[in-house]
Amino acid sequence: KNEVEQSPQNLTAQEGEFITINCSYSVGISALHWLQQHPGGGIVSLFMLSSGKKKHGRLIATINIQEKHSSLHITASHPRDSAVYICAATTGNQFYFGTGTSLTVIP
Amino acid sequence: NAGVTQTPKFRILKIGQSMTLQCAQDMNHNYMYWYRQDPGMGLKLIYYSVGAGITDKGEVPNGYNVSRSTTEYFPLRLELAAPSQTSVYFCASRAGENIQYFGAGTRLSVL
Predict the structure, then answer these.
(1) Distance (Å, whole) CA B26 – CA B15
(2) Is B99–A47 a contact, with Cβ atoms under 8 angstroms apart?
């Protein structure tokens, strides 16, 4: 059983659509991270949050500590958003990663 | 700033060979990490360091060793390479309670 589960595994959207990616975790966490892995393999950290909501451009991340659930939203999706989005839970110095959600945005 | 630099980018090893994956960061971050990513699987933490001279095991440390003699460098050593160590290896660093910065990765094949 994975400590971090993501859904959906794969997602195809039309350009402009609102996208939601979900992450559930079973461990007690100190922080929840969202990462973006580009088709070339490079990884970029998008958010680190321990409560509430954070927004950066068209990306919004929320977390509900009681429900052990986080969501990543992309508004007005664009083909350049096509990537794998990875959720990771931090407990102290340990990181537990989901297997990622592969997003394809079609023009 | 270069950020997190990993070398080499690609490497093929024979079973039983050894090698060191290099990782350097120029951001003066105290935390550094080594991960492996197998196809279709999530990233898994191999080792981490909270500062120079301090390292600790992650989820999958067997077959690897690390050292952290300075803040900048965090090499990962593979002894007696095995096919199960075929993977993409990522190094990352962060400062305190902040996001991580990742290197570009090292793609390793053990044949």
Answers:
(1) 33
(2) yes
> Contact B37/B88 with Cβ under 8 angstroms?
yes
Four-point Cα dihedral B20, B22, A46, A69, nearest 10: 30
d(CA A97, CA B90): 13
How far apart are the CA of B97 and the nearest CA of chain A, in angstroms? Answer: 9
- Please answer yes or no on whether A47 and B59 come within 8 Å at the CB atom: no
The amino acid at residue A12 is: T
- Return the structure tokens found at B45: 């933490």
- Asked if A94's CB is within 8 angstroms of B99's CB, the reply is no
Q: How many CB atoms within 10 Å of residue A25?
A: 23
Interchain CB contact of B44 with A (< 8 Å): yes
Whole-number Å distance between alpha carbons of A42 and A21: 20
Instruction: Return per-residue pLDDT of chain A as tens, 107 residues.
Output: 678 999 999 999 999 999 999 999 998 888 999 999 998 888 999 999 999 999 999 999 999 999 999 999 999 999 999 999 999 998 877 888 999 999 999 99
